[in-house]
Amino acid sequence: MSDEQRGFTVWFTGLSGAGKSTIAEMLFHELKARDLKTEILDGDVVRQNLSKGLGFSKEDRDTNILRIGFVANLLTRNGVAAICCPISPYKETRDQCREMIGNFVEVYVHATLEELAEHRDPKGLYKKAMAGEIKNFTGVDDPYEVPEHPELIVDTMVESPEESLAKVLKRLAELGHIDDAEARIQGDRVHSGLTDLRLTETGHVAKEV
Amino acid sequence: MSDEQRGFTVWFTGLSGAGKSTIAEMLFHELKARDLKTEILDGDVVRQNLSKGLGFSKEDRDTNILRIGFVANLLTRNGVAAICCPISPYKETRDQCREMIGNFVEVYVHATLEELAEHRDPKGLYKKAMAGEIKNFTGVDDPYEVPEHPELIVDTMVESPEESLAKVLKRLAELGHIDDAEARIQGDRVHSGLTDLRLTETGHVAKEV
User: Fold this and answer.
1) For residue B22, what is the DSSP state?
2) Does position A3 have pLDDT exceeding 70, yes or no?
3) Could you tell me how many CB contacts below 8 A there are between chain A and chain B?
4) What is the pLDDT of residue B114?
């Protein structure tokens, strides 16, 4: 079994709208292009299949994150690259996932609240949260604990998605999870169906950020 | 990737105490002995990690089963043998899992209510359910829908666990999921930690049934 793929988890954490799903989706296709087995655990898919009924209290958020971590661990220890992109605001819970999984690559996806509220709020969620119409919104009236020692920080304030992806691939190569860091996919990508990214009319991933 | 393991799910269904976990645990070690990647999704592990907070209404049971099916599907499509052993009383929900997963081997583990209540009720659960002290107990005041076309029926009323296991291995070989059906493990087995089976003082699986 020594030639088999070694599993790992790439865990994107950051505020809603920071770009986690965008980079996750791009990474998914890069790993697929390398013939690696890979899965994304994100958004609607997780909410529908693992976490229906959970709310946004700290306890419910922790349950959701640990559930994603449990599944990511099952995949990782069976040789799959699991890509997770929940907000995961609490450091302690992220660290529990890290400890459980082992081959854990934490990527902090940074963007400021101001940027998100002013320029990346297509559904008006930040505005509603800031007006008090939505409660427990991470970054507004619910905490987000910035990772202290992530394997990588990407800053979508100043980087294009392609630049952030390049940094992720470079870090994964440094850590021995992939052989080469060169991006293989150019142009539009067909949607994995595993993230909440919007689609163009042709079924391709809409350009975000 | 053509030499890689093809994933499949073995889905044990039947009343509480019928022997699902016992046979699942034995199968786990047989698959491991064949160098196959395998996971068990059962009992406490599922309740703790996937389904905390769910009760025993039809809706909650269905949510639990579909959640197990979702995870089994992730494993199966990545080349893992997923062994699931929830009671899974409803035919429609089992069929949804079958449809989702594809490589689905349904094993009905049969034992009569009388046998379970009289001879396999160490915690007295059947007695309490029959006395009305526990509600929504499958087989007593909650339905169990017997599979109409399972891939296999094992009858723990008349078979030893070793005999039931032999039938499971034979069926998996017929279906092309394993190469040979001969049992490889003799005697006591170290507990996988993935089922609710009782342990002997030496950490080995207690003989059941």
Assistant:
1) H
2) no
3) 42
4) 95
Across the range A132-150, mean pLDDT stands at 96
For chain B, domains (ranges, CATH) are 8-174 (3.40.50.300)
**In angstroms, rounded to a whole number, what is the distance separating the alpha carbons of residues B42 and A208?**
41
> Which A-chain residues 141-200 have CB contacts (< 8 A) with chain B?
none
Q: Is A97 helix (H, G, I), strand (E, B) or coil?
A: helix
How far A111 CA lies from chain B's nearest CA (Å)? 31
Interchain contact A74–B (C-beta under 8 A):
yes
Interchain contact A49–B (C-beta under 8 A): yes
A59 or B209, which is more confident? Answer: A59
Q: How far apart are CA A123 and CA A92, in angstroms?
A: 30
d(CA B41, CA B24): 10
Q: Which of A16, A21, A88, A192 is catalytic?
A: A88
**Cα nearest neighbour of B38 on chain A:** A78
| Joined tokens for residue A184 | 């293989």
Concerning whether B88 is annotated as a catalytic residue, the answer is yes
Assess contact for A108 and A148: CB atoms under 8 A.
Answer: no
CA atoms within 13 Å, Cβ hemisphere of B14: 27
Q: What is the ipTM of this complex?
A: 0.90
